[in-house]
Specification:
The protein is α+β, with helices and mostly antiparallel strands. It is built from 22 helices and 15 strands. Helix 11 packs parallel to helix 14 (368-374), helix 17 packs across helix 21 (539-550) and helix 18 (471-482) packs across helix 19 (488-508). The model is unreliable at 197-201 and 426-431 (pLDDT under 50).
C-alpha cells in the first residue's frame, strides 16, 4: 500500500498533518536475536528534524503476531482515543477514563480490562497530554521510545495508547534450512563471552548498560554538572556495579534476547523505600545523576521511575534541570528560586512540575534551549539541534563529537555508537579499536557506525547485537526470513541510502550549512579530569573529514549524491 500525505519536511510537528508511525522491521517477531524492537517515527517537536525512537520489550513482537507491520496515524481525534488490536481487528476507542493518568495506572487499567496474558500497552502520560516537547511513549515493561518528543506528537493527536492482544506466533522463515544455519552462527557470536554476556568479565548481562558509568568516568569521558567537567567523583555510587550489589532484584528480558541487560531494582531505604522499578539504564542514570551532580542511586531510581510514569525522556529531563543548577550556581536565576547540585527532593518535585507544565516546569517543558534562554544564557544548553547530548563527553571520546554534530535527530549516541570502538572496543572486530582521544579517522569511523546502525534500525534489532554480530550474519538472517537475497555490501548501501535520505529531509526543512555543531563548552573549555585532561573536541577537523567521506557539502547532500543513491 502506498501512502500519500501532505506532510512535507516543513510540516508543523504538532499539527494534524504530521504523521506518527509505529513500525516494525522485517525480523520483528521472529527468532532472530534481539528482534523485539519497535520504531516510533515522526517529525520532532523538540528539534524540528526527522526522528525515530526505538523501544524494546514485547510490544513490537506482539504487533507483528497480531498481523501488523506498522501503524500510521494522521489527523487529530476529536476526543482522547486509544487503539485496541485483537483477533485481526483494529478499533479506535474512547480513552477518557485514562486521560490524565500516569503510564503505570494506564497500563494497569488495560490489563484489568483485557486481561494481562498476551497483552501489550504502549502509552503516553500526562507529559504527552500537556505537550511537553520531550514526552515519550512507554510500554508495559517501562521500555521507552524516549527521544525526540514522539509522545508529545501523540498528545497533539489525542492518542493515549496502543493496546495489543496477541498470542505468540513466531514469524516463519522463508527458507528454514538457511535460517537454522544463520541463526546458529548469529547466536554463537552473541554468546561469545568476550563481547556482551560474560559473567566473568562483567558485561551487559551482569551490570546492564550502566556498566559504562565507571568506564567512561575513568577515561575522562563522563560529562558532569552540565558538562562543566568530564568526570564525576560520585560515579561509583550510581554505577552498574553499585546497583548490582545494592539494589538489583531481577533480570527481565526482551523478546528473543539472550543478553538480559534490563536490571529491575528495589530501593530499600530512605524516602523512596519500597520503590521497585526497571531500570537504572546508563544514559538516564547519567542525566539525573552525574549531569545533575547527584550521586544518590535512590534518587536516580525515583527520577527515572517518575519520568516513565509521566511519559518523559529521562535523558532529556536532566538538561533543563542541570541548566537551572548551573544558573543558580552562577547567579543567573532571573528571579526564579535556586536549586543546588544534587538536590534530589527538588529534582523529583520539578519533574512533576514539568509533566504538568506548572511554574518553572512550564519553561523546562519546552526543552534545554528555551530553559537556558529564560535564564539569559543560551550557552548553558548542551544541545545539538535542540536535543541534549547523552552521556559521553566529546572531549574524552572524540568520535561522539562528530557523531552528535551529524546525527539526523539531534545529539544522539545511538545514530553512530563510536564508544563501541573507542571505549568497549568490540563491534566490528579488533581492527576497529581506536584511541578515544585521537580525532583523526573519527569522521570515517562515525560514518561506518551510522550506516551500520541505520541497518539495524531498519531490521529493527537491538544496537547491542552489533557489539557481536557481523553484517554477514544480519544479511543471512534477513535473507532466510524474507527470502530476499542480501549481503553485507547490500545492507551497508541500504544504511548509507537511508541516512542520506534523512539528511535530505532535514536539508529541505532548513537544516543546511552550519547546522552540524557542538556547544562551545566542548570546543573551548579543556577537560580537567582523568585521561582526557587538557583536551577539547576538534570538531572542525573531524567534520571536514566526515563531509569528504560522505560526499556532502558543508552538511548538505548534493544533487549528485542523491542521484547516485537513487533518492531523486
Amino acid at each position: 500500500m502506498r501512502f500519500v500525505f501532505d506532510n512535507g519536511p516543513q510540516v508543523d510537528p504538532l499539527s494534524p498533518d504530521n504523521i506518527l508511525c509505529f513500525m516494525n522491521g522485517p525480523l520483528t517477531g521472529s527468532e532472530a536475536n534481539m528482534s523485539g524492537r519497535m520504531a516510533i517515527v515522526t517529525k520532532s517537536p523538540l528539534t524540528g528534524t526527522i526522528t525515530d525512537s526505538h523501544h524494546g520489550g514485547w510490544s513490537a513482537a506482539r504487533l507483528r503476531w497480531a498481523g501488523y507491520d506498522g501503524l500510521v496515524f494522521r489527523g487529530k481525534a476529536p476526543q482522547p482515543t486509544y487503539v485496541y488490536i485483537h483477533d485481526d481487528q483494529f478499533e479506535l476507542l474512547d480513552a477518557s477514563e485514562v486521560w490524565g493518568k500516569g503510564v503505570h495506572d494506564t497500563v494497569k487499567y488495560f490489563k484489568e480490562k483485557y486481561g494481562e496474558k498476551d497483552l501489550t500497552a504502549i502509552a503516553i502520560g500526562p507529559a504527552g497530554e500537556n505537550l511537553v516537547k520531550f514526552a515519550c511513549w512507554i510500554n508495559e515493561d517501562d521500555r521507552a521510545s524516549g527521544r525526540g518528543g514522539t509522545g508529545c506528537v501523540g498528545g497533539s493527536k489525542n492518542l493515549k495508547a496502543i493496546v495489543i492482544k496477541a498470542e505468540k506466533k513466531l514469524v516463519k522463515a522463508a527458507d528454514r534450512e538457511k535460517w537454522k544455519e544463520a541463526h546458529a552462527k548469529a547466536l554463537a557470536e552473541i554468546m561469545d563471552e568476550r563481547v556482551v554476556t560474560s559473567p566473568r568479565k562483567g558485561g551487559l548481562s551482569v551490570y546492564g548498560t550502566n556498566v559504562l558509568m565507571n568506564m567512561t568516568n575513568v577515561i575522562g569521558g563522563l560529562p558532569a554538572k552540565n558538562s562543566q567537567f568530564a568526570a564525576f567523583e560520585g560515579a561509583e555510587k550510581i554505577s552498574g556495579e553499585y546497583v548490582n550489589d545494592n539494589l538489583l532484584v531481577d533480570n527481565p528480558t526482551c523478546h528473543a534476547c539472550p543478553v538480559a541487560c534490563k536490571k529491575e531494582v528495589e530501593v530499600k531505604d530512605g524516602p523512596y523505600a519500597g520503590l521497585r522499578m526497571e531500570s537504572l539504564e546508563y544514559e538516564p542514570a547519567w542525566s539525573v545523576g552525574a549531569n545533575c551532580g547527584n550521586d544518590d542511586a535512590r534518587v536516580v531510581a525515583k527520577m527515572i521511575d517518575t519520568c516513565n510514569d509521566m511519559g518523559m525522556d529521562a535523558i532529556e529531563i536532566g538538561h533543563p534541570l542541570s541548566i537551572w543548577m548551573e544558573a543558580s550556581e552562577r547567579g543567573y536565576t532571573n528571579g526564579t528560586g535556586k536549586i543546588d547540585w544534587g538536590d534530589g527532593a527538588k529534582m523529583v518535585e520539578t519533574a512533576m512540575l514539568i509533566a504538568k507544565r506548572e511554574g518553572i516546569g512550564a519553561i523546562m517543558a519546552d526543552g534545554a534551549n528555551p530553559t537556558a534562554a529564560y535564564f539569559g544564557h543560551p550557552e548553558l544548553a548542551m544541545t545539538v539541534k535542540g536535543q541534549g547530548v547523552p552521556a559521553y563527553d566529546p572531549r574524552g571520546i572524540k568520535g561522539m563529537g562528530v557523531g552528535y554534530a551529524t546525527s539526523n535527530r539531534g545529539a544522539c549516541h545511538l545514530r553512530g555508537y563510536t564508544p563501541a570502538a573507542e571505549v568497549v572496543g568490540n563491534v566490528l572486530g579488533p581492527s576497529t579499536i581506536t584511541d578515544p582521544l585521537e580525532w583523526k579517522g573519527k569522521g570515517e569511523l562515525t560514518i561506518i557506525f551510522q550506516n551500520v546502525h541505520t541497518v539495524t534500525d531498519c531490521l529493527d534489532v537491538c544496537k547491542f547485537a552489533t557489539f557481536a554480530e557481523s553484517l554477514d550474519s544480519f544479511a543471512a538472517q534477513y535473507e532466510a526470513i524474507t527470502g530476499v537475497p542480501s549481503s553485507a555490501e547490500h545492507l551497508l548501501k541500504v544504511g548509507e541510502r537511508v541516512y542520506n535520505l534523512e539528511r535530505y529531509y532535514n536539508n529541505l526543512n532548513g537544516f543546511r550549512e552550519g547546522s552540524d555543531y557542538l556547544p562551545e563548552r566542548f570546543l573551548k573549555e579543556p577537560s580537567q579530569h582523568g585521561g582526557s585532561k587538557g583536551h577539547v573536541c576538534e570538531l572542525d577537523q573531524m567534520l571536514e573529514e566526515y563531509y569528504a567521506k560522505r560526499g556532502w557539502v558543508n552538511g548538505v547532500v548534493p544533487e549528485s549524491k542523491l542521484k547516485e543513491l537513487e533518492i531523486i
